[in-house]
Amino acid sequence: MTQMHTHPDTSPFDSRYSWTRLGITLLIAVMGNVGMWAIILIMPEVGAEFGAGRAEASMPYTTTMIGFALGNLVIGRAVDRWGMTTALSGSAVLIALSYGVAALSPNIVVLSLVQVFIGFGTASCFGPLIADISQWFETRRGIAVAIAASGNYLSGAIWPVLLGWIAADAGWRWIYALLAVLTVLLVLPLAQLLRRRLPVEATAQAEAKSSARAVATGFSPRQLQWMLGLAGIGCCVAMAMPQVHIVALCVDMGFGAAVGAEMLSLMLLGGVVSRLLSGVLADRLGGVRTLLIGSTLQCLALFLYLPAGGMVSLYLVSLVFGLSQGGIVPSYALIVREYLPAREAGARVGFVLMMTILGMALGGWMSGWIYDVTGSYQWAFLNGIAWNGLNIAVMVVILLRGQRGQRMRAVSV
Length: 413
Description:
Shape: globular
Strand content: under 5%
Largest sheet: none
Radius of gyration: 21 Å
Number of helices: 17
Oligomer: single chain
Mean pLDDT: 84
Helix content: over 70%
C-alpha cells in the first residue's frame, strides 16, 4: 500500500484533510450504525409475531451485539492491514445481503442467526471508524473521536423515529428491505473517499508518546488492554438496561412503543451532547479521567430510573441518562490511543470496544431474563448499578497507578 508523503514541516495531524475525513466518517457512521438500532425498534413486533417471551424476543438484539463485537475486533485488524475503504466496502455488501435474508426470516431463531451478520458488518461503522479517525488527530483527538462516535447515537436518534413511521404502515420486514437498499446507495460510495493512509513517520511519532504513558502505569500493554476490556463489560451491562428495554418498558406501562421510541431518541440525542462535551473535556483531562466522570454520572442516572413511574418522569430521566453516559465508550478509544501502540490502533480499539459491546449484549439479555423472573425491571436496574461499580473500580486503579508512576519518574529525574 502506498503511503502519503508530506513536507517535513507539515504535520498530517489536525489538518484540513483531517477535518474533511472526520465529516465523511460521521456521515458513514450515521447511516451504517442503523443495524444496531433497528432491532430494538422492531423487538416488540417481532416478539408478538413469533409469540416470544421478553428474554426470547431479546435474543436477536443479543446476537446482533455479539456479531457487532466480533466485527469491531476482526474488521479493526483488517483496517490495520488493508485500509478503511476495503474494509468498509466489504462490510456494506455483507450488511445489505443480511438485511435481505433477515426480512424473509420464518422464525425468531433464523432472525437471531442472521442478526449476527448484520451486527458484524455494522461494526465497520463504529470501532474501526473511530480508530481510523483517531490516527489523524493529536491536539484535538478527544473532540474528533467524540464526533465520530456520535454518529452511532445520531443514527439511533434519527432512524428509530423515521423507521417507526414506516413500521406503522409497512411492518418490520419492509423496513429491513429498505435498509438493504440504502446501505448500498449511501455507504459504498462514501467508503471510496477514505483511501488515503497516514504516513509511517507520523505513526511512529504518536507511538513514542503512548509508550511513555503506558510505562508510568506499571502495566504492560496486554494487561492494560484486558483491564479496559473488563471495565467495558461492566459499564455496558449497566448501559444496556435503559437503551435496550426502554421501548418494552413503555409498552408495559401502557405508553406504547411510539413513546418508547421517542424516549430512546431523546436518550441518544442527549448522548450526542454528552459525547461532544466529553470530547472537549478529554482534550483537557485525558481519557481516563473523562471516562471515570462519565461512569459515575451514569451510575447516578440509573438510580433515578428506580422511582420514575410516569411518562414525564421517564422522559426526563431518559434525557438525564443520555447526558450522563454518552462519553463513556469513546473514552475507551482515547485511552487506547493514549497508552497502547499506534500502529495497532484498529486491533486494540477493536478489542476494547468488542468487550464493551459484549457487555451491551450481556446486559440486554440479562435485563430481559431478570424481567421474566421478577415481573419487573426494578431488579434489572439494580443489577446494572452493581456492574457499573466494576467499571468505576478499574478506572480508579489505572488513574492512581498512572499518577504514582509519573510522580516516581519526576523524583528520579
